[in-house]
Every structure is written in structure tokens, then in C-alpha cells.
Request: fold
Amino acid sequence: METKFSSKPNFWQVLQSVLGALFGVQSSKVRERDFMAGRSWWVYLGLGILVVILLILLLIGIAKWILWQAGGQVLAGGQVINFC
Reply:
């Protein structure tokens, strides 16, 4: 059974595809839509890089917040001083 996709995926569908690829969970229907719908691969690559950068910044922020809650002061270089 062949499925035709008439329109390009919108931003939220591309984001869903990028997140699915990042976590390794994606249906074959969505994967087929991504390859058949005519969106440039640059869109997926660019959004994927942006999502990875945001994930890294989120993890750094969480780590700094945990250290701050523990009583340390986090400097720009990642050094912790006055840790009690």
C-alpha cells in the first residue's frame, strides 16, 4: 500500500521527526513522510543541531542549579568554590 503525502511537513512535524530521531523512536509512517514530502534535509539537520545545543545548555543549567542548591558558587569556567 503506497501512501502519498501532498504537503510538506510543518515546523511541529519536523520537530517531532527530529526528536524521534534523537531518541531513536519513530514510526515508519513518519519516516516515510519525511523522505517523501519534499522538505530539504537542511531543515532537519539545522533543527537537529539546534535541539542538541538546547539539550546541552539545559543539562549544563541543571548541573549548575544543583551545585548552587548544594551551597557552592559556580564560576564561568565550571569551577566550584566555597562548597560547604
